[in-house]
């Protein structure tokens, strides 16, 4: 049965359970959250009563919740202190996600900085293998996010993500989150019908549609091949409405969560507008 899971990233201010309340208040079918402060390496342990409230609300609302790692994590970093903290922080976030019953956590693959990208790819895969060994038995997966290709960041090419997945031992615990803004900025022309068709043909050949766990639904302030990660409201950027119409009506993506990461204020008015626009593109 066709089910379009649309939603947005929600703040966890006041507790992780509050994110579900916020999502439900604007009709989200799915939400993305951080499991701790996204600009800090570590956070206080989640209180048990907060975990229980989160699980209860998630069950009552039926909202699919997935997570995103903090912005400091870089599993490809050649800087020893950053790399070590990244491993510890990632382990902490995976443990939090597991306690909350979150199915997967989205990860920016990393940036190799002044070392060869190939080295960074191998380091990311090796680190993920080490993390999975330490949390053997956990259900939470890792979803590698497609990136815009700015600087030395890994993941702007499907082949780079494929290589990480190929080097990860436990294939059942690794997947992909496709960011529309990032992939367009990276050079994948999802704006035209032919470009859209070719993009997904390449994605399926390199990675496999079965590895797709989620979408970040964002328009782009910058153009094709700009390699700049600048999110814009739906229909207000370089992508326009057509790519989103094609994604929302593509049967291959039924039941795959799609979350906005566009700018917004505390009243979530921008999310409401963007979600209405997206919903209007769905063919009955």
Automatic annotation (TrEMBL):
<dbReference type="GO" id="GO:0003677">
    <property type="term" value="F:DNA binding"/>
</dbReference>
<protein>
    <recommendedName>
        <fullName>Probable endonuclease 4</fullName>
        <ecNumber>3.1.21.2</ecNumber>
    </recommendedName>
</protein>
<dbReference type="GO" id="GO:0003906">
    <property type="term" value="F:DNA-(apurinic or apyrimidinic site) endonuclease activity"/>
</dbReference>
<dbReference type="Pfam" id="PF01261">
    <property type="entry name" value="AP_endonuc_2"/>
</dbReference>
<feature type="domain" description="Xylose isomerase-like TIM barrel">
    <location>
        <begin position="23"/>
        <end position="270"/>
    </location>
</feature>
<feature type="binding site">
    <location>
        <position position="68"/>
    </location>
    <ligand>
        <name>Zn(2+) 1</name>
    </ligand>
</feature>
<feature type="binding site">
    <location>
        <position position="216"/>
    </location>
    <ligand>
        <name>Zn(2+) 2</name>
    </ligand>
</feature>
<keyword id="KW-0227">DNA damage</keyword>
<feature type="binding site">
    <location>
        <position position="261"/>
    </location>
    <ligand>
        <name>Zn(2+) 2</name>
    </ligand>
</feature>
<keyword id="KW-0479">Metal-binding</keyword>
<dbReference type="GO" id="GO:0008833">
    <property type="term" value="F:deoxyribonuclease IV (phage-T4-induced) activity"/>
</dbReference>
<dbReference type="InterPro" id="IPR001719">
    <property type="entry name" value="AP_endonuc_2"/>
</dbReference>
<dbReference type="InterPro" id="IPR018246">
    <property type="entry name" value="AP_endonuc_F2_Zn_BS"/>
</dbReference>
<feature type="binding site">
    <location>
        <position position="231"/>
    </location>
    <ligand>
        <name>Zn(2+) 3</name>
    </ligand>
</feature>
<dbReference type="InterPro" id="IPR036237">
    <property type="entry name" value="Xyl_isomerase-like_sf"/>
</dbReference>
<dbReference type="GO" id="GO:0006284">
    <property type="term" value="P:base-excision repair"/>
</dbReference>
<comment type="similarity">
    <text>Belongs to the AP endonuclease 2 family.</text>
</comment>
<feature type="binding site">
    <location>
        <position position="145"/>
    </location>
    <ligand>
        <name>Zn(2+) 1</name>
    </ligand>
</feature>
<comment type="function">
    <text>Endonuclease IV plays a role in DNA repair. It cleaves phosphodiester bonds at apurinic or apyrimidinic (AP) sites, generating a 3'-hydroxyl group and a 5'-terminal sugar phosphate.</text>
</comment>
<feature type="binding site">
    <location>
        <position position="108"/>
    </location>
    <ligand>
        <name>Zn(2+) 1</name>
    </ligand>
</feature>
<feature type="binding site">
    <location>
        <position position="145"/>
    </location>
    <ligand>
        <name>Zn(2+) 2</name>
    </ligand>
</feature>
<dbReference type="InterPro" id="IPR013022">
    <property type="entry name" value="Xyl_isomerase-like_TIM-brl"/>
</dbReference>
<feature type="binding site">
    <location>
        <position position="229"/>
    </location>
    <ligand>
        <name>Zn(2+) 3</name>
    </ligand>
</feature>
<keyword id="KW-0378">Hydrolase</keyword>
<keyword id="KW-0540">Nuclease</keyword>
<feature type="binding site">
    <location>
        <position position="179"/>
    </location>
    <ligand>
        <name>Zn(2+) 2</name>
    </ligand>
</feature>
<dbReference type="GO" id="GO:0008270">
    <property type="term" value="F:zinc ion binding"/>
</dbReference>
<keyword id="KW-0255">Endonuclease</keyword>
<feature type="binding site">
    <location>
        <position position="182"/>
    </location>
    <ligand>
        <name>Zn(2+) 3</name>
    </ligand>
</feature>
<keyword id="KW-0862">Zinc</keyword>
<keyword id="KW-0234">DNA repair</keyword>
<dbReference type="GO" id="GO:0008081">
    <property type="term" value="F:phosphoric diester hydrolase activity"/>
</dbReference>
């Amino acid at each position: 049965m066709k089910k379009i899971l649309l939603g947005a990233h929600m703040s966890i201010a006041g507790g992780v359970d509050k994110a579900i309340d916020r999502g439900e208040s604007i009709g989200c079918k799915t939400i993305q959250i951080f499991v701790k402060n996204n600009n800090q390496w570590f956070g206080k342990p989640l209180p048990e009563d907060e975990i229980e409230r989160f699980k209860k609300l998630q069950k009552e609302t039926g909202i699919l919740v997935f997570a995103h790692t903090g912005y400091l994590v870089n599993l490809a970093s050649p800087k020893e202190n950053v790399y070590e903290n990244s491993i510890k922080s990632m382990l902490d976030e995976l443990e939090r996600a597991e306690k909350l019953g979150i199915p997967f956590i989205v990860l920016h693959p990393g940036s190799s900085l002044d070392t060869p990208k190939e080295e960074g790819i191998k380091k990311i895969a090796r680190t993920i293998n080490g993390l999975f060994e330490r949390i053997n038995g956990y259900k939470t997966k890792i979803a590698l996010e497609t990136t815009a290709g700015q600087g030395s960041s890994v993941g702007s090419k499907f082949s780079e993500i494929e290589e990480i997945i190929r080097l990860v031992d436990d294939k059942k615990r690794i997947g992909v989150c496709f960011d529309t803004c990032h992939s367009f900025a990276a050079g994948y022309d999802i704006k035209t019908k032919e470009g859209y068709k070719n993009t997904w043909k390449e994605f399926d050949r390199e990675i496999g549609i079965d590895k797709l766990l989620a979408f970040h639904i964002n328009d782009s302030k910058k153009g094709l091949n700009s390699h700049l990660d600048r999110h814009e409201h739906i229909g207000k950027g370089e992508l326009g409405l057509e790519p989103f119409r094609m994604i929302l009506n593509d049967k291959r993506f039924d039941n795959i969560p799609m979350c906005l990461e566009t700018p917004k204020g505390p009243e979530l008015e921008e999310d409401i507008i963007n979600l209405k626009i997206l919903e209007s593109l769905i063919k009955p």
